[in-house]
Amino acid sequence: METWKTIDCKLLLDMPPYLKVEAHTIQLPDGRKLENWPWLISPDFINVVALTREGEYLCFRQTKYGVQGTTLAPVGGYVDAGEDPLAAAKRELLEETGYEAPHWENLGQFRVDGNRGNGTAHFFLAREAYPAAEIDADDLEEQVLLKLSRAEVEAAVQRGAFKVLPWQAVMALALLRW
Amino acid sequence: METWKTIDCKLLLDMPPYLKVEAHTIQLPDGRKLENWPWLISPDFINVVALTREGEYLCFRQTKYGVQGTTLAPVGGYVDAGEDPLAAAKRELLEETGYEAPHWENLGQFRVDGNRGNGTAHFFLAREAYPAAEIDADDLEEQVLLKLSRAEVEAAVQRGAFKVLPWQAVMALALLRW
Prior knowledge:
homodimer; alpha+beta; Nucleoside Triphosphate Pyrophosphohydrolase; eight-stranded mixed beta sheet; three-stranded antiparallel beta sheet
């Protein structure tokens, strides 16, 4: 199977540092051309499922502009320019929860939108996490740190209580991994 | 916890039917204002994990513009304007695989981007699927229909072989549900 080729690329919108929109001209394997294909460029992000030494899951209850009401959430944030995704994951865990962890597993990296790009999600599982510092979050949203049992996380995933796609995804992947 | 309020909204880019970009002015609960917040409007989509009467998972190997190389994929597609997500799921299952199914479960609906919107993913599990028609897919990508065992799907999810975020998510959720 042959992949599609980008033969032209025009910047339509630039809202640094969060979003660029391009219009791509694409050539299909059979020679046909697609014009004006929307392509989104946004920062990669990480999400971390953090398990404490006591086997609790570090989560938040928070508001989020794109979500109605409150939602459960894992640790997460954008990867800074030039930053390694694992380093970003460790940084966000420490900033948002005050915890560090000695054991880290990669739960995969996934293109957010198969058609339009829109960045890549990098997922991690942190185990044996322990409190190491004060919380130093720079997030604008209100959030409350929770320590959930595995049974509580399983029930929350079954009812879709992590209302944002990458959050529900990383929680499900962590339950399948560990 | 109070959610953020949209107090102004300006259309920056319109690429029908796939994408609108708006700049929102947002008021935070503490009274501060955020200007020029990027907000993406794109069609909702469905993904379906379809299990045959024989317990096989209907998947594809395919190319996708936003993905390097080939990827595994579930049934999926955009919800048409005014269409019910479950109806879209049944339509896409029939078009893409030629299968119908008597048993459908909702695996949840999730905001794609908690900050920027960008549509909602609607996930379904279809069971006892059986061949009912010829394949009638209108997708531009090359794809090959596969019937995978549960063990093959579990291994594929563990290695991140569904390379697109909603696809990996729906497969993981199906494994946790059934």
